[in-house]
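re: ur question from earlier - yeah i can do the single chain one, its not a big deal. heres the input i used so u can compare w yours
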Amino acid sequence: MLDSVVQRNNLIASIERARSASLVSYVLHDNAVIADDALPQVYDKLQTLHHQERIDLLLYARGGVTEVCWRLLGLLREYCDHLSVIVGTRVQGAGSLLALGADEVVMGPLSELGGVEAIRNHPLLPRAEGGQPVPVTLAEIKSLLRFLSEHSTGEVAATESAQTPTPDPWKEVAGSVPPETLSRLFDYIHPLSIASLQQADTLSREVTRKALAMHMHTDDQAEMDKLVELFNGGFHSPIYTMGRAEAREVGLPVTYAPDDLWTKVVELVGLYQAALYSDRPDPLNPGALNRYVCVIESAGRTTGLRQTFTQVEGQERVIQLRWETAVKGPGPGPSFGPGNVSNN
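and the output i got, formated as tokens:
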């Protein structure tokens, strides 16, 4: 992780000058999500920066815990008057809440923004061959009920649109499905797991609305409603993402990154990914490997989440997760914090 810290710090400084804002980077491995153990690490960077007029969050995340992303958004806003999220290059799942709650969303040609809709595991959900619960969204359950309703009553439901809010099919469709059909459905999907999905969906919609209200005018309720629906099932796919033109079209405060700025962002993200996707032998655990699954960084201050794992018959088994912080000290490179080995 420290191999390219000087290059990264130079790029951070260059982006800060171009944007007239302080930069905090939060970049995750594709197998990692925004979780509560990262909050103290982000707080550490913000405390060092102190309150700023403008803070940019450079974010790359495929997902996150809804409650944590909402808490992180509030934390970031406590330390600045104007919050911008630089999408570099992919933000999906609950991580999108951070962009939806920002005053400005900076996007380049490769930037992608996905839906917030929660995918929740539950012990009573159907299980795959390996015994793990199959992730399901409430939108999938609603689509199934609509399908069953159409073929049970002969009525065709209104065609959904990703851009136009539609009536909640949970109330309108579930009641028209014959009881015996619902009974058979519950043989495959436990009612308690559906209740859990309903809770997750309600929470996701509520925090999406709260995030938008941080910068949208109260008179924009119709626009807000449309965005809440769109980012909570309106894409009809958990992997659908929108580019900057579409994000601006639906009403998000999108700024197109100038070419020179975007070149720096792509280079910085590339350095982070090189650090994240580099498995190395662990010197303290013979036969084990380690990798960094998350990097949180500001100028002169770097924190990484190191994962130590073994591989048995193609399966990874994590044996340790540890946060490591390096702070710039005397000499050409940074120094590890207390309890770690000096890099000077």
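The chain has eleven helices and twelve strands. not sure if urs matches, ping me
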